[in-house]
Design goal:
This protein is α+β, with helices and mostly antiparallel strands. The protein has a single domain, classed as Alpha-Beta Plaits (2-Layer Sandwich). Helices cover 36% and strands 34% of the residues. Strand 2 and strand 3 form a beta hairpin. The longest helix has 18 residues. The mean pLDDT is 97. This is ABM domain-containing protein.
């Protein structure tokens, strides 16, 4: 079953472009470690609030990557520009 991990984060508006570059580097780094990251989406709520949704092929894959990803230099760089990150996890039960 696919799993969604949603991160609501805050980034200073002046650093939005930097965050986008660092996020892209993080996605590339994670994809080098697994093929279980199937899709990512980023939405802007307002000038400083973003929703970042990553879709995983399974909860097991997400758990495995979540245990090691914080040590990636790209993860550390990406989250260095983020404030107030709140993470939620959902099992995807219907998609049309």
């Amino acid at each position: 079953m696919s799993v969604l991990r949603l991160t609501r984060l805050t980034v200073d508006a002046a650093r939005a472009d930097e965050m986008l570059v660092r996020r892209a580097a993080l996605i590339e780094a994670v994809r080098r470690t697994t093929d279980g990251l199937t899709d990512t989406k980023l939405a802007r709520v307002d000038e400083e609030t973003w929703l970042d949704v990553w879709r995983w092929d399974s909860g097991e894959t997400l758990d495995r990557v979540a245990a090691t990803a914080p040590a990636l230099p790209e993860a550390q760089a990406a989250f260095a520009v983020v404030r107030d990150a709140q993470v939620e996890r959902y099992d995807l039960v219907d998609e049309r």
